[in-house]
Write a structure and sequence with these properties.
With about 70 residues, the protein is mainly alpha-helical. The chain contains 5 helices and 2 strands. The longest helix has 12 residues. It is globular and about 35 Å long.
Length: about 70
């Protein structure tokens, strides 16, 4: 789990993203659709950061480390 904690404003912003199932102060749960799309795009050669950006995530809010670790999970 990341050491980054989300503010109330960041949680509200993340909750509005259709790729997010739920979000708390410390964790994001992505929808199954996003997880499958991520895997397909990653295997097609896209970088994790690019995939998140294309799916309307703010990379600065989520944090690059959390994004990179998504590829390993």
């Amino acid at each position: 789990m990341s050491k980054i904690t989300f503010s109330c404003k960041e949680i509200n912003t993340l909750q509005k993203n259709p790729n997010v199932q739920r979000v708390s102060e410390k964790a994001i749960t992505y929808t199954d659709e996003f997880k499958n799309r991520f895997i397909d795009d990653y295997q097609a050669g896209k970088l994790p950061r690019q995939i998140f950006e294309e799916n309307d995530f703010d990379v600065e809010v989520i944090g690059i480390k959390r994004i990179e670790q998504s590829a390993f999970r």
